[in-house]
Amino acid sequence: MDLAPVLNGFTVVLEPTNLLYCLIGVVVGMLVGVLPGLGPAATIAILLPITIGLEPVTSVIMLAGIFYGAQYGGTITSVLLKLPGEASSVVTVFDGHALARQGKAGTALGIAAIGSFIGGTISIVALSFLAPVVASFALDFGPPEYTALALLGILLVATVSSGSRLKAIVAACIGLLLATVGRDAFTGGERFTFGNLNLADGLDFVPIAMGLFGLGEILYNLEERHTSVQAPAKVANVWPSRRDLRQSSGAIGRGSVLGFVLGILPGGGATLSSLAAYAVEKKRSKTPERFGKGAVEGVAGPETANNAAATSSFIPLLTLGIPANATMAVIFGALLIAGVPPGPRLVTDEPELFWGVVNSMYIGNILLLIMSIPLVGLFVKILRVRPAILAPITVLITLIGVYTVNNSTFDILLVIVFGVLGYLMKKVGFDPGPLLLAFVLGTLLEDSLRRSLLIFDGDALGFFGRPISGTLLVAFLLVAFLPLIGKALPRRRPAEHPSDTKELV
Amino acid sequence: MTSAHDGAHTPGSPGGRTAAGATPQGDPGPVPPARTVEDVDRTPSSLHDLEDAVHQLEHDAEHRPPPAGTTTNLVVAGLVVALGAAALVGSLSLGAGSAGNPGSGTWPMILSLAIVVLGLALAASARGTSDTERFSRSSWLVLAGLGTMVVFVAVIEVIGFEIPAALLAFVWLRFLGGEGWRTSVITSIGVVVAFYLIFVAALSVPIPHLF
Question: Where are the domains of chain B?
């Protein structure tokens, strides 16, 4: 492996601007992790307008920092308040909060921070070796391979998204349909523009992401009855004892590997890997009865895994150009806006961007470790900010922010429309994640499908004649139709559950 | 909040079960009785139990309205089918093309057909769906919030962003967030001043402004 570009990446990171934006990113990430309400995908979406004037590498360094920073921050509320700030920190509540009730909140936070740091770092190292290999493998991909890959990616994300799978697939189809609005790349004819000039160039990614994730989430949260938040427990002594460390070292190791592997898979990501890590730890433990009553491993495993997964989910994005989850879809959008289409050529054509972003994660993780151990008290104070005060500020940032992208009032209108759509979707059980992901991949998918059909002379079976696209499509069909066959079998039995778990992992 | 979930077999996150402590408002039949916090502490073992417990926990933390009835589910499925049908008509008018020579309308047509079929499947499973949330009285809050945004976009070109922004912040703080009068007035003015300083004075963003 050629080390020169890797080292070059460090010079990129150490430029003062990039360091500053890395710091901004991780602090913002930590904050959104701490504050319940907005997740990292929503925050990154809302901050997209800021990135427009920036260098591509700087903006992705910042956005990535928000993403993995949120994994650290989410732990704090899970442990102290039993309110997960982040979906991927939900399992931490079981043992983390139990520890806090025993007066050991510091231990839980300390172990989580150390685990996150180790998991993140191992994952970055593994990414540095694996990503160039995947990218060089993918360089030979033609339209049929991309068609199959995009289809499988969208389906996997829809399969493991929250809520009904059927609804997630509907959302994905609507996303693909929205991507067809505007000029047809092949014929130049306008599609679904209804004569509106603003739509002739297609729907813009920024207002859709900001509306669906940002405004939609805020509107959805309006309906929550806010109970008064209890004062968080006092945090003393964040350094875990030697015994705690020894006890959780295995969990941290296993969590790193599990998180890295699950993070790469489309639809995997931080949430799934934290769940899986908890299950693994409990199963392996000689004293499973301690779980839920304050087992350190129950905090260490999932917290390590979610951070490792957050890092490794960059691999499919940066090497194949296929985002593995909703947050990656937003970062995909940011790269497109910056004029750097992510794909297998990124590693060789834009080594500074690729290695700059990857290496910035080392720095970001160190910054986060510093913030989570000595400065944890500061973030605990932030918990006192009421969501009612944050909501209008976020709304205004969204409305004004989207205007600044193109200086167009039409974009504000668009963001409101998609905000309503996002709210309604969440309300009736459709996860907006697959919609955005599909929208992002829509053009690629349609282009490669049409090209493939031209190559194959209209014979759809041609996909199966090429080894990679054939394998991917078989996997697609299996994922799509196996559950249907399962449903067609006679009445549900309890024995069905093990197969569920397999499908998930 | 997105969370990994195999929704085919368990109810999804919004309104999956009644939150502990929330009053069940005439839940549709087969919803299990409210679980208590102790149930969650029973610590799940399999990944599947774990997911259930996680949803329960998210639910407890967020106090969501109860799940909606079959009618709402049918209406949702109907809307999906209608959307698919409308898109189908639109795609056919673009030219369906053929497999050997795909046209502008080919791909949208495939998608629209998929949406129609999936919508019909949703309608067929409407009775067993419990991840739809009931529209409750608090849904009016959402409409009110939406109203402030529509006013914002309607008048910004005419009178600049300051007045509609202050108004929006005030309504959200006082009426949607239940803050006190004083906090609401001071915060909304403070927010607009801060935005003015950041966007207009410091960054000179060409956002329409009054002053």
Answer: 1-66, 70-128, 139-202
